[in-house]
Amino acid sequence: MLRLGLPIALFWFVVDQATKWWILNHVMDPPRVIPITGFFNLVLGRNTGVSFGLFGDAPPWVLMAFALAIAAVMVVWMARAESRLTAIGLGLIIGGAMGNVLDRLRLGGVTDFLDFYIGQWHWPSFNMADVGIVCGVGLLLLDSFLPSKRAEPSRT
Fold first, then answer.
1. What positions does UniProt annotate as the active site of this protein (predicted)?
2. Residue 121: strand pairing partners
3. CA distance 130 to 51
4. Mean pLDDT throughout 125-132?
5. C-alpha to C-alpha distance for 97 and 103, rounded to whole angstroms
6. Are 42 and 27 spatial neighbours (Cβ–Cβ below 8 Å)?
7. What is the DSSP string of 117-153?
8. Angle, nearest 10°, between helix axes 2-22 and 128-145?
9. Looking at residue 64, what is its pLDDT?
10. Is position 130 annotated as part of the catalytic site?
């Protein structure tokens, strides 16, 4: 499954980095709020923590080491996976995690730019790496509910 999942990880990493480059170098020069719809803006944010800014005071190298360790475990999981859905989900998660790790290494925090809202309530801004991570987790959950193709031992 590595031949399926690793190219997906690389592809999603490139998607994430390309969109962040575009936002930083073209769209948000100068930084501003760009209304797209009545529920979605482009913004420029920098998250030094993890999800929702948690652990924002932690040194970037701690968060990077943690993400790299998790990614290594996921590569082993991918190598042992029996389902294409698992390999795809893990690829999306790994690609997204590595995109955010590179941001922390280069910029000291993660570039976020997608801002969804209802009325005055705004979901925390996020990026394409986060989209890949959430979709990857969703695929893993979906795969866990699908019947396994492995033969179950008979109970006689």
1. 112, 130
2. 118
3. 9
4. 96
5. 10
6. yes
7. EETTEEPPPB-HHHHHHHHHHHHHHHHHHSPPSSPPP
8. 150
9. 81
10. yes
Two structure tokens written together for 63: 């968060």
More confident residue, 69 or 51: 69
Instruction: Please state, rounded to an integer, the average pLDDT across all residues of the chain.
Output: 90
Comparing 19 with 58, the larger pLDDT belongs to 19
**Which one of the listed residues 16, 103, 112, 115 is annotated catalytic?**
112
Catalytic choice (103, 115, 130, 143)? 130
- pLDDT tens figures, 72-92: 999 999 999 999 999 999 999
In the three-class reduction of DSSP (H, G, I as helix; E, B as strand; rest coil), residue 31 is classed as: coil
Respond yes or no: is residue 143 known to be catalytic.
no
Sign of CA dihedral 98, 99, 101, 106: positive
pLDDT above 80 (res 52): no
User: What residues does each domain of the chain span?
Assistant: 9-26+40-145
| Contacts with 124 (C-beta within 8 Å, 6 or more apart), sequence order | 52, 53, 112
